[in-house]
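Re: weekly structure request thread

Next one in the queue (157 aa):
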Amino acid sequence: MDIQKDRHWIEEALKEAAQSGEDVPVGALVVKDGKVIGRGANQRERLNDPSAHAEIQAMRQAAALTGSWRLTDTTVYSTLEPCPMCAEAILQARVARLVFGAWDPLSGAAGSAFNLFVSGRGLPLPEVVGGIGEIPCRELLVDFFKRRRADASSGKT
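Done, posted below.
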């Protein structure tokens, strides 16, 4: 584990989060051999797709690029602890590592609200590293929800 590299990639994932538009700002990358092979930002609102989470978007792009749904020997970097849907997709794709920024006590599935990364499931478990770049990742979300509440109270949508 190289914490400096992990911080670098989380900073890059934060740039992806800025592409989320009206959606909750979450960004994700899939990295293999030091190269980004997939990028994603939450796009549920823009695409009207409940599965268009940043991690799913990045893994779809990586799978298309590699020609395989198996993303072995890759690391998924996300600015937020994955939800159960994304955590399961990470497991199913055989991702080797998961690194994320902010913990999600409401729906995080890597140890906060749930933990899908437990032995005995019959799938290879990725190494999971949480809290890398936690403060800027969390602040991005806090600021987003403050703006959303302010807009709602002023009648903006």
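The chain has a mean pLDDT of 95. The beta strands are 27-32, 35-41, 75-80, 97-102, 127-130.
Next request, please.
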